Amino acid sequence: MKLFNIFKKKIVAGCGHETLKKDKVTAFGASCETKIPIADGKTDYCHRCLEKMAIRCAWCGEVIFIGDPITLYSPKDKDRKMPDYAVPHNKEHNSYVGCFRWNCAETGADRAGFWYPPGKVYRVPTPIEMCMKNMQNGGDGVICVGDLSDRKEAVRGL
Asked: Where is average pLDDT lowest: 55-59, 72-76, 146-150?
């Protein structure tokens, strides 16, 4: 904990723990700074609980923090044994939660959602699904997505 954090106002989260608005979250040897949403002076989870909600990518093993964009891939080989830490998304389609890193996601068009509390997929349309919807509505199938990691942009126009 940084020294100046001692003087910052703490909020009691819905989980019952005190937390700061912005703090470092660490899981599986990786860290990031996370800003929690606050409405009417309240928030649902503290940073320590957010750490416990982090998972590992089914494909590369890197950490996926709350709020990170995710992919939902199925193994090409149906007999492939997935790692114990792999988080299944849809058992019927045999899809698993993966990260959106350059060395893991095949394309930016594969962003299929975000990892959200309490540790689940917040599904949004992939850019390809957005193009298809645009065409169904009489458009030319062309869309522009400025930031694939922005949840608000992912659901704009739905």
From this structure: 146-150
Tell me the HSE value of 1 on the side-chain side, using a 13 A CA sphere.
10
Contact yes or no for 72/89 (Cβ under 8 A)? yes
Long-range contacts of 131-138 (CB under 8 A, 24+ apart): none
Rounded distance between C-alpha atoms, residue 112 and residue 123, angstroms: 6
Q: Are 39 and 13 in contact (CB under 8 A)?
A: no
Q: Which residues lie across from 95 on neighbouring strands?
A: 90
For residue 30, give the 3-state DSSP assignment: strand
pLDDT in tens, 88-101: 998 888 899 999 99
User: What pLDDT band is residue 145 in, cutting at 50, 70 and 90?
Assistant: confident
Outline where DSSP puts E strands in the chain: 11-12, 18-19, 22-27, 30-35, 55-56, 63-64, 69-73, 88-90, 95-98, 111-116, 120-123
Residue 116 has pLDDT above 70, yes or no: yes
Closest CA to 78 of 101, 62, 65, 94: 94
